[in-house]
Specification:
alpha/beta; Rossmann fold; seven-stranded mixed beta sheet; 7 strands; globular; disordered N terminus
Length: 237
């Protein structure tokens, strides 16, 4: 693990600002080779269906140009291509892009400062990355800038179940079991950080309000996996 990963060690305050950007980039560079394997194991394969649902929720015509932001190893890019779209993947981590398994064009860039003209794309997806951003509002404003009016976005992110019992079980699983899985298959410190990183996320109602404030309308939120994940969909106003 690169030295930046020390900023993500459990028991310490979660990093912010440029320290967070460096630490997150270093972490994902390190876990890229086995990232897909760990995802499949820790979600019991449910993440595949969640991504396909996000692509369907875009409700865009075939041939649409869709940015996949924080594209990682290209899972959403492949699903977008299967749906007949033309995806372009963007990620901050060189390691993730190097491990990508997609024929879509890939760009290394900060998703809060995209090298894309205004209103240039028909839609955008983002899978489980909001909590890893340094500035969520800057990201949403940038997203609104590059998506054309009437374009669509579909964003996946972790969440917590509404039920107290399910929330307890979810906390045990992601707080204790996931780090063990990550330690066996990849990097334990990274997968101890990732459950804690949910603390960066605002509550669902606040998250939707911030989407609307950035320029999106008709925002909807669907709970996935008994509330362990969420799908936010909106239209560029």
């Amino acid at each position: 693990m690169p030295s930046d990963s020390a900023e993500l060690m459990p028991g310490e305050d979660l990093p912010t600002g440029e320290a967070k950007v460096r630490a997150v980039r270093g972490m994902f560079d390190a876990i890229a080779p086995r990232y897909d394997l760990v995802n499949r194991v820790m979600t019991f394969g449910l993440d595949r269906g969640w991504r396909r649902r996000a692509v369907r929720a875009l409700d865009l015509a075939p041939g649409s140009v869709v940015l996949d932001l924080a594209a990682g190893t290209g899972d959403l890019c492949r699903d977008l291509q299967a749906a007949g779209h033309r995806p372009v993947g963007v990620d901050l981590s060189w390691g993730m892009l190097a491990a990508a398994r997609t024929t879509a064009p890939l760009v290394q860039a900060d998703v809060t400062r995209l090298p894309v003209p205004a209103a240039a794309v028909d839609g955008a997806t983002c899978g489980f990355a909001l909590r890893n951003l340094d500035d969520l509002d800057a990201f949403l404003v940038e997203l609104a800038r590059v998506v054309r009016p009437g374009g669509r976005i579909a964003v996946l992110e972790v969440s917590e179940p509404d039920s107290a019992v399910l929330r307890w079980g979810h906390g045990v699983y992601f707080g204790r079991v996931v780090p063990r899985i990550g330690g066996l298959l990849s990097d334990r410190s990274a997968y101890r950080y990732l459950p804690r990183s949910a603390a960066y996320l605002p509550p669902p109602a606040e998250l939707i309000r911030r989407f609307e404030a950035a320029g999106f309308s008709g925002s909807t939120r669907s709970a996935l996996g008994a509330g362990a994940a969420q799908l936010l969909v909106a239209t560029r106003g």
